[in-house]
Amino acid sequence: MKTYYWLSRNRLPSHLRIATAGAIAPITNNVSVKKSISRLPLRLGLPRVQPTSIIRGFLLIPLLLGCFALLPGAQATDLESVLPNGNTADGSGVLVSLTSGVWNSAFGFSYNSATGVYALYANINGWYNNAVGAYALTNNISGNYNTANGYGALYRNTASSGNTAVGFQALLNNTNDENTALGESALYHNTTGCCNTATGSEALFYNTIGFDNTANGVAALSNNTAGVSNTAAGVQALVSNTIGSNNTADGVRALFTNFAGSQNTATGVQGLY
To answer: Which H or E run contains 215?
Structure first.
């Protein structure tokens, strides 16, 4: 015969047990086993990851990339660059076809090199020109192989080629080819004269149409305008010559007072003064 301990609503003290025939079973105090196993504890104490958070994270990636794409980039200084006024460029093709703007400086491989205010300002299709200094080769448009180093050097050169001007306003008015001027204002007034070489301050200063002249020295052949094939070596050698040709003066003030004479040779200080 089974023996039962009965209390109101089956509530028994925890130390009491139900005695049955051949078995002793603990009372679980009416705990629902089904309910307890349906709630699993968090694994290793890690927080739950919401799927919506992951999705939102992936959606932010293209948005951030789009924002970076909209940031203003550095202006490229290559052939396709548009250089505003006052900019300094460094790179391939700079100032190749610049026809307007001020305060520009260019450095790099572009067949042309320009450094200084208005240097190579008007250049369009001239190649292999080198301009260093404010207003150097400013008006060059299509001239090639020119070198201008100094303020206003080769300033008015537009289409002439093969000229070298080193010094303040050297070859400033030049419009012809193959002239070399080394010194302040050397060959300053030369316009259509060709193949002249002037070394020294104001050497061949007034030469305009004379050609094949060589002047080495301060003010040598400085007043020559149309004389050709003259050679003057020395300070103020052939200084007064204007239209005389085929003269050679070697020495300080040699042939000093020669104006229009030709085929003269003077050697020494004040030779044939």
So the answer is: strand 214-216
